[in-house]
UniProtKB/TrEMBL annotation:
Gene Ontology molecular function terms on file: glycosyltransferase activity
Secretion signal, residue range per the UniProt entry: none
Protein name: Glycosyl transferase family 1
Gene source species: Algibacter mikhailovii
Residue ranges constituting the Glycosyltransferase subfamily 4-like N-terminal domain according to the UniProt record: 110-236
Pfam families the UniProt entry points to: Glyco_transf_4
Keyword entries, A-Z: Transferase
């Protein structure tokens, strides 16, 4: 039986690092097992904020990869301020009161002149090239994945020109994403963003989202079919590691300025003061980009001597740090907009064998998944005593060499199981 050819358009692809690359890298890995031949279209010369060359090994030589040049405005922005352009491209936006004039100016330009995002110049030329490829390869199904949501505009053009079946995948929401409000968007620009979002949501044949909250949000805009396919975990190479001797509480990935759980830092500060053994064993480890205000909070609470700032590492190394640690932190901004966000690392956390301490808003998909799988505890930003109590409980288990998790129902979040769900839609 001939395999069904599917064109997948994505901005993020190895050697891109960070969470944005994982979803479709894994789908592409497993789709051939379900009689689907993926053809992947990516930028030839992207300006990826994070690089992880180890991910290249996960791309099979049998997969057709088509590359096309892109003009990256962040390279030009670097002339004004290299530091600001680099941090913005990583999604790091300073607190408003700490923003320089240059950063404010760059945010205004980004939000009002690059709609929906800084990769908009890739849309028209890519669509023109892909029309020929679609004809040549006899492709009748198209998938676009965002952010950047400008990738969906390529899908929109191809849909209009060729009438393909189009699946639009949203790893994150569009206009309701947390940082959207920080881009100093004018009312006119906001209308343009909303119009494009509405057009994509009502033109695609099938919408894919990563959370039930996003599905509920989009359902207010469109009647198109919406399927929830979360991110997940994959089988990882066997890593030689030894668990930390210290009581390590680790956060893996970017911990940006608004993700600053003061209740957690205060609880740890109190435990340090009250318990000499706890103070001797505590280690707070950050693996990834950390906002300066978070480091300031730790200094203010006399926790500076306890934190270990590793910085960005490869995906394989991040898995190692997860397994080495005693507790894993999952922190989300306390806002209505972040209820639909399920960080990709949650699923890797769940199979690490280490208890999760999650802090975020109420009624999130994250809270439901953690409870359903018995992999940790979710707390709100106004929780204090219960958070402190759980940390102490985990510490006592650590001292008795009994700190384990007993997860249930994880198999449905395996990348192969999720790809099977995707294949049914194709």
């Amino acid at each position: 039986m001939n395999k069904k050819k599917v064109l997948i358009i994505t901005y993020y692809w190895p050697p891109a690092g960070g969470p944005g690359v994982q979803r479709w890298l894994k789908f592409v890995k497993y789709l051939p097992e379900f009689n689907v031949e993926p053809i992947v279209f990516i930028p030839e010369n992207p300006n990826y904020p994070l690089i992880d060359n180890s991910l290249k090994s996960e791309v099979s030589d049998d997969i057709t990869i088509i590359k096309y040049p892109i003009k990256e405005p962040y390279r030009v922005a670097g002339i004004l301020s290299k530091k600001s352009s680099q941090t913005m491209s990583k999604g790091v936006i300073s607190e408003e009161k700490k923003q320089s004039f240059i950063e404010k100016f760059m945010l205004f330009i980004r939000g009002n002149f690059f709609i929906p995002d800084a990769r908009i110049s890739w849309v028209k030329p890519s669509a023109n090239v892909l029309l020929e490829i679609i004809e040549k390869e006899k492709i009748d199904t198209l998938i676009t994945t965002g952010p950047p949501h400008s990738v969906h505009l390529i899908g929109l053009r191809l849909k209009e020109k060729r009438g393909l079946r189009w699946l639009a995948d949203f790893r994150d929401p569009w206009t309701s994403i947390g940082y959207h409000k920080q881009l100093r968007i004018t009312k006119n620009a906001e209308r343009k963003h909303k119009k494009l979002e509405n057009c994509v949501l009502n033109s695609a044949d099938q919408l894919l989202v990563t959370s039930n909250n996003t599905k509920s949000e989009f359902r207010k805009i469109t009647n198109r079919p919406i399927e929830v396919i979360t991110n997940g975990y994959d089988d990882e190479p066997v890593i030689d590691f030894e668990k930390d001797k210290k009581f390590t509480i680790a956060h893996i990935g970017s911990l940006l300025s608004k993700r600053n759980p003061m209740n957690l830092w205060k609880a740890l500060s109190e435990l340090v003061k009250e318990n000499h053994e706890f103070a001797k064993d505590l280690q707070i480890r950050f693996v990834g980009v950390v906002g300066e205000n978070i480091l300031e909070s730790l200094r203010d609470l006399n926790l500076s001597d306890y934190f270990d700032d590793i910085g960005y590492v490869s995906h394989n190394q991040s898995i190692m740090y997860q397994k080495k640690s005693q507790l894993l932190l999952l922190i989300e901004i306390d806002s209505e907009e972040t209820k639909s966000i399920i960080p990709g690392k949650l699923f890797e956390y769940m199979v690490s064998g280490r208890p999760i301490i999650s802090i975020g808003p109420k009624d999130t998909d994250v809270e439901k998944i953690i409870k359903e799988t018995n992999t940790g505890n979710h707390f709100y930003y106004d929780d204090y005593e219960s958070l402190k109590s759980i940390i102490l409980e985990h510490y006592k288990a650590f001292k008795n060499d009994e700190l384990e998790t007993y997860p249930i129902g994880l198999q449905k979040y395996h990348r192969k199981s999720l790809t099977h769900s995707l294949s049914k839609l194709l």
